Amino acid sequence: MLVQLIRNRLDPWLARPDSRAPALAKVRDLTIPAPHAPIGARLYRSGLAPGDLLVFFHGGGLVSSSLATHDGVCRRLAAGSGLDVLAIDYRLAPEHRYPAAHDDAETALAYAAETLRPGRLLAGGDSAGGLLAVAAARRRARAGQALDGLALFYPLLALDPVKGDPRLFRRSRAWMRRQYAHGLDGLADDLAFPAADLPPTFIASGGRDPTRLDANRLIAAGAAVTHHLEPAATHGFLNLAGVSLRAREQSDRAIAALRAAFAP
């Protein structure tokens, strides 16, 4: 099964120690109360005092990755952006199908707002984690609890079909939807391309990554987007920063752009 192959081969490689990741003032694990079971999380602080907070949802197609695979990513985000980062270990498909990960994302944001009480509250993520961040932000906006921003890295913004997708991108969306939302009849708002209810949004895209098409569609739809493009970057360049000088430079520039986009 492809999911098990990804988990057995790719996840351990992504979770290897990153000796180049920056040191931070504080890193600690915590658990978030939830109806099904506590959600694992990890808080990264670049300063001694709490500040603005980015609740971060890792990529992995909603079927793989973890706090461990994105530890170096979150350390770089916290150090470079000036934001505290709360990484979320949400439930994965196919064991936990829609709306499990979406509900975990919404629960995590509520916890951050009510318990951690940051100055500003942002949601973000890379790849499929961006889908969760956007959906959770829209849920909160409809409840009258709008976020202060979104911070997205090469985000996949829909699992339901999007007109004009290249064949491989279309197949990738369809495969992830089968894993996560198998048995769901019809289209779902949480899985469709977002059209409204978005706070100010930062997106970093790679020029060699088809997810840049989703960023371009969002901009064309009139969303308030600051778009940072790394022309030579591929999908997942944040995860490659520990082993590639080029990816590290791309990550540093993208994170600096995020810092500028949400400068106080």
Brief summary of the model shown:
This protein has 264 residues and is of the alpha/beta class. The protein has 7 helices and 8 strands, in the order αβββαβαβαβαβαβα. The termini are far apart.
Descriptive report:
The chain has one domain (2-261): Alpha/Beta hydrolase fold, catalytic domain (Rossmann fold, 3-Layer(aba) Sandwich). The chain is 37% helix and 18% strand. The protein contains seven helices and eight strands; from the N terminus they run αβββαβαβαβαβαβα. The protein has an eight-stranded mixed sheet with strand order 1-2-4-3-5-6-7-8, with helices on both faces. Helix 2 (71-81) crosses helix 7 and helix 3 (100-116) crosses helix 4. The model has no long low-confidence stretch (mean pLDDT 96).
Which H/E pattern describes the elements? HEEEHEHEHEHEHEH
The CATH architecture assignment turns out to be 3-Layer(aba) Sandwich
Q: Tell me the helix content.
A: 25-40%
For the CA atoms, what is the radius of gyration?
A: 17 Å
**Distance between the amino and carboxyl termini:** 47 Å
Which key terms come to mind for this protein?
single chain, about 260 residues, alpha/beta, Rossmann fold, 8 strands
